[in-house]
Write a structure and sequence with these properties.
Blueprint (H helix, E strand, L loop, with lengths): L1 H35 L22 H7 L9 H10 L3 H12 L11 H7 L5 H23 L8 H14 L5 H18 L52 H15 L4
Helix pairs in contact: 1-9, 3-8, 4-5, 6-7, 6-8
Length: about 260
């Protein structure tokens, strides 16, 4: 009898182990589904996204806004090319890096516009300050989406722009180039934004605690079940939810059910 009990317990432990492995595999599949279900176009906000420390984003939005095409580049080589080309390399290179970041705000320029604005008389004086500070905001925002502190100092960028406008020598930008390239390399090193596990809720048998009760108007639509949307204000989560969020949420549910549209 004692041996039978041991065998039964061993079988039960084996079943529990297999169930745990299955749940871990399903969780990994869901995380991968969200990370790869990137919308073709992102929502555009008017302003105030990059420096808003209290910005509330859903997990789907965090993943989508964190998608970028940045690539690692040696810091020492960026500094060397900046000095050898008298800043021309940095102008072209970082304009291209801005094109690899998601255009979240309406004022985010394309690489072509970023370079063209430097050729416009008088306007280029404004653009000398506007472009690098916005690029720094966009890179720092990518770090914040990944839980990292900003690495690019806005004060340093403004000081470099001011020195260039007064002295007409871009060598002061060496310090800003170091920070920008280090920040870009850090974003690449961290990889894609990974949704938090708390964003998923089991559809079957889930009971919401009383203290977490939200008003009816804050509940997400039925077709977006599976992803908990933060009810706090966000320029991306104002009702009704954008179409890209519905599509991403549908893909998450499809991955959970193992179905295809």
């Amino acid at each position: 009898m004692f041996r039978d009990d041991q065998q039964a317990m061993a079988l039960q432990n084996e079943d529990l182990r297999r169930e745990a492995e299955k749940l871990r595999a399903e969780n990994a599949a869901l995380r991968y589904a969200i990370a790869t279900s990137v919308p073709s176009s992102l929502p555009m906000a008017s302003r105030g996204v990059y420096r808003n420390q209290d910005l509330a984003l859903s997990e789907v939005e965090r993943v989508a806004l964190g998608v970028n095409g940045l690539q690692h580049f040696p810091v020492w080589l960026a500094v060397l090319l900046h000095i050898v080309t008298f800043g021309l390399f940095s102008l072209v290179y970082y304009a291209g890096q801005g094109g690899k970041l998601p255009e979240i705000e309406a004022a985010d320029p394309s690489p072509q516009k970023a370079l063209l604005y430097f050729l416009l008389p008088y306007f280029n004086l404004y653009w000398l300050f506007a472009f690098p500070t916005r690029l720094a905001d966009r890179i720092n925002f990518q770090l914040r989406l990944r839980g990292e502190a900003p690495m690019i100092s806005q004060a340093l960028v403004v000081a470099c722009s001011l020195s260039t406008a007064l002295v007409l020598v871009p060598f002061f930008w060496v310090f800003a180039v170091v920070q920008m390239q280090q920040a870009i390399n850090r974003v690449v090193e961290l990889g894609p934004v990974v949704p938090r596990e708390a964003a998923f809720t089991e559809q079957a048998g889930f009971t919401q605690p009383a203290e977490m009760f939200q008003p009816a108007e804050m509940h997400q639509p039925a077709e977006m079940t599976g992803v908990r949307i933060d009810p706090a204000y966000s320029p991306f989560t104002e009702p009704p939810p954008p179409a890209w969020a519905e599509e991403a949420a549908w893909q998450v549910d499809a991955a959970r059910r193992g179905t295809q549209r």
